[in-house]
Amino acid sequence: MENQSYFLVVMLPFVLVILIFKHFSSHQSKNSPPSPPAVPLVGHLHLIKNPLHLSLASLASRYGPIFSLRVGCKSFLVVSSPSAVEECFTKNDIVFADRPTSMAGDHLTYNYAAYTWSPYSHLWRVLRRMSVVQLFSSHSLQKSAQIREQEMLQILRLLHKESGKKVDLNNLISTYSFNIVMRSIAGKRCVEEEEIGTEAGREILRQIRGLFSPTVLLGPCDYFPVLRWIGYKGMEKKAVLMQKKRDEFLQALVDEVRDKSTRSAAEEKRSTNLIEALLSVQASEPHVIKSLLVVMLTAGTDTSALTTEWAMSNLVSQPEVLQKLRQEIDANVGHDHLLSEADLPNLPYLGRVVKETLRLHPAAPLLLPHLSSQDCRVGGYKIPKGTILLVNAWAVHHDPGLWDEPEKFDPERFEGAVEMEMGRDGNHRFLPFGIGRRACPGAGMALRTVSLALGAFVQCFEWEHVEMDFGANLGVTLHKAKPLEAVCLVRNQAAHLL
């Protein structure tokens, strides 16, 4: 018995090496994309540095806009050119419509019922359709406009009280974003009006952001399954604990809505929140309801807040752009009423400011990974089934061959013939919300949320930056290294609006 155990311990590493080499040798062919030299067993792990989008952009400069990588037992195709993106999401759109499975996905997505991470299937189509109908359709966005305008007014009133002082815009913008989503899905605020800007409000926000911060879909235990077997760094236990806390929070939201007393006829006429709507059609499937809530709280909050913060950072640091935007708002909105969503179509320069922010600082520098469901070809190269596709949106957005002075914040670049609609018009060099059938369905809500905040900030206040830092933190989303702080002064023309 001891001899058998000793034999297994000694031979296991060799067996693993043989299996991995066998797996990847079967995937290599003369028609494979270019690839850097690999190290046995770990593949190209030694070439992957943080931040990942910059590391992949550097490799693309050496190996081209289409190249392959291997990390442990996973194969990757990395693309960073409009032509390659177009081929992946037009000709091969269905092939790349799947998502890779992972340890995080096993525990944090209600068995992949959360449609952002679910495989391309009938369930995915049903869940996506439900979210679009209830939240993201034009009709739904019009109904929910009042929520966004009311939450913006709360932030403006607090800024009014703090006029002349340094304010933490990161916290206020995040509160605005989370309150909009919470009211849309549960009919209640995340942070109540009297708590906004207080330490109690910051703590509530920290806790919820901690539960629903965007999660790395693939990690060390996915590249090297043996790490999962041995419980590497307790990662799986942490994922299980995170899901337990998440589920308790979401179940409490669902129970609170379900247990409400019968509403009056007047209340019944109001627009229902997402949980109410889902309970009416999915009462027997609580995990489906909670899976949709997970998507909204992870994908619909942090990204909008980050984009707004980056946009304000750019405006405050470039007074000439801020002044041009203010002139447009004064001319088209005036001082008789607070800017509303109905005014947005009349503010094209504001739209360009938002788009330029999304280009220069995409909230998700790498689009969510896709998985090939069968063999295909991209750029003439053979791509095997089971390859994970990574689209480096940041590299496309910063390519000097596609954009003049790509590192410069220049809203004018989106003027006239260059105007584009988020990659949906055949122009695949602008990808802030993804592309293809798995593109983000919440783009419309995100644009309204960000545009309303920026427009109101500029209409009502003068801004002076305290200390500007354009560095970014590492992670799934592109956070500012230091939260934005600025001094706001109420404009005389806008004081009566607040």
The named CATH superfamily: Cytochrome P450
Separation of termini? 80 Å
Give me the count of strands: 9
Which bin fits the share of residues in helices? 40-55%
What CATH calls the topology is: Cytochrome p450
CATH architecture: Orthogonal Bundle
Pfam families: p450 (PF00067)
InterPro entries: Cyt_P450, Cyt_P450_CS, Cyt_P450_E_grp-I, Cyt_P450_sf, Plant_Cytochrome_P450_Monoox
Subcellular location: Membrane
GO molecular function: heme binding; iron ion binding; oxidoreductase activity, acting on paired donors, with incorporation or reduction of molecular oxygen, reduced flavin or flavoprotein as one donor, and incorporation of one atom of oxygen
Give a quick rundown of the structure.
The protein has helices at residues 2-25, 52-63, 82-91, 103-108, 122-136, 138-161, 169-186, 199-212, 220-223, 225-229, 235-258, 265-268, 274-282, 286-299, 302-317, 319-332, 348-360, 393-397, 443-460, and strands at residues 66-71, 74-79, 166-168, 370-371, 376-378, 381-383, 388-391, 461-465, 485-490.
